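Now for a typical sample entry:
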Amino acid sequence: MRSSGGARLKRIIILPFFIIISVGFALSWGMYVYGSRIALGDAVSSIMTASSERIAEEIAKRFESAAHAAGTNAAFLGTILGDPVPNPLKPTEIRKIFLEQLRLDMGLAILALGTEDGEYQEAQRQPGEAFRVGSAGVSTAGALVFRPVLEDDSFGAPNQSVPGYDPRNRPWYKAAISAAGPAWSAPYTLYSNADLAVAATAPVFRAGSIIGVVSATITLGTLSEYLSVIKEAEHGVIYVTDSVDMLIASSSAPILDREGKRTLAWDNPDPLVAAIAEAVNQAAPRAATASRSRFSFRLNGNRYLGRAVPFAPNLDLDWTIVIAVEERSYAEKLLEADIRNFVLFVLFLVASFVVGWFVVDDITKPIRALADGVDAFRPGAAIPAELTAFATHKNEFGKLSRSFLAMKIRLDESFGAIEASLAEKEVLLKEVHHRVKNNLQVVSSILSIQSGTIADEAAKKSFDECQDRIQAMAFVHEEVYRTGSFVELGMSDYLRRICESLRQGRLQGACDTSFSVEVNDEAALSLDKAIPCGLIVNELVTNSLKHAFNGRELGSVSVSFHRDGPAWRLAVADDGVGMNADGRAELAGASGTANMDGIGHQLVEGLVVQLRGTITYDATAGGGTSVSVTFPA
């Protein structure tokens, strides 16, 4: 038997090694997952860096082409416009030149010329393979008139007219005039169809003076279309913002709000764009965007990785290209491998635990039975039969069982002695409180007899008040004796008895006073707080009965005591004469004499300090006075 027990204990030693191996494998797995995620993040970041550079390069080519077209046309038109020019180009010829250039440069939406005299010529790309030309000026009475370009390159009849067009009032024209040279306009809406656009502009000079402005326009919609077909946009968002974080173009998010104004990135209706903007600002403030900023964030439980890079600084456009993709889109294959490995790991652990369970169960079964038997130890309870059976074994468990049985016998003997001693002390405590209560009753009776022999009414009232105070203290000891609770006192019955005692004394006067006592049945205080609280109620109610109802036949006094957060709140209110002129309650008496400024007032203030509380006096809404005492629980 002893050899068998030793073998079982040896097998127990295997369990810690099993735990160590499991923890080590789990830590290795965690380090592997952590390292692979960091490597994946770096790889995705490199991909996005390359993608953002590719996007910036492609968009820069479009903008450089537009700037080149504007500058070249401005230089050319400067040689053939104005006076004196032998053979100036006709407006139709200018529009045809612009039309040919649009056919060659697919990134341009509009090529236009506006002159200082308000004349305007343009060629414009339409959806599909269509084009149209437009003109404005004296010949069109100031309207912008469009004509379709036919298959033979001739211009058809006017099919749209927009009145009141003056190129000199357009943003692209003003940008060139303000810069007195090539410039980029701020994003604006086209006059003909309200599409958002941005234009490269160049002034046309003649003899050192500006005689017009050429603009090469790129619509922001074409930029958004380009961003939407980039592969990275399938699992995230790509967008371009200006210097104040307003959207220029986006692969999926709306650029305009409901009022037709461009939205701020962080205020975009698309929650993904708003989250990206917040992450970009946290990673690199606007002042630091000259260098690439790398950021990451979570949205709806998914992690996103992103880059924000400046767009073509050589074009003098303070724009930023932002790209963010969902990490999961790049980690799907890795996630699948992780899941397979994790499943194998879990299966291995489950199998190990199952085997270990049967091994350990054979060892711990007697220990569990012994523990269950010990848990059943209760004073006077019978010893479990299973524990008695284990006590007959001649191994370690048998020795341990016999020790527990001996301990059980000694505990029963000790508990019996303790119970007897406790019962004796409870009887003594109850007898003490009973005698204290009786002694206080004797003192109250002596005061009552003595007051009957006093002719002075003021002195007689003082004796009566002392008797009420002693009675309030006696009620505490009576409640303790009645309930047998020496730790705390239930305040509901205690306060009701105080008020009932005072009410019966008041019924002998001229005013019929009703009492309302609102105390939760569970409200209880320790004895060192219950006595001061009861004395405060006694003083405040006595004061109301003495001074609040002079000259009245009916009156009411309410007492409430309840928990208010971490503190207790005691309130005594009446519907009597209320506050006097100097702001004090009827504690000062109907005649204005300071009745409560004597022993009563001092006693209340002292008891409040003893409770470490505060006292406030207020006038009630319907007349009368409310006194509130708040002290820590």
Summary: Confidence is low (pLDDT under 50) at residues 287-291, 581-595. Residues 495-632 form a domain with the Heat Shock Protein 90 fold (CATH 3.30.565.10).
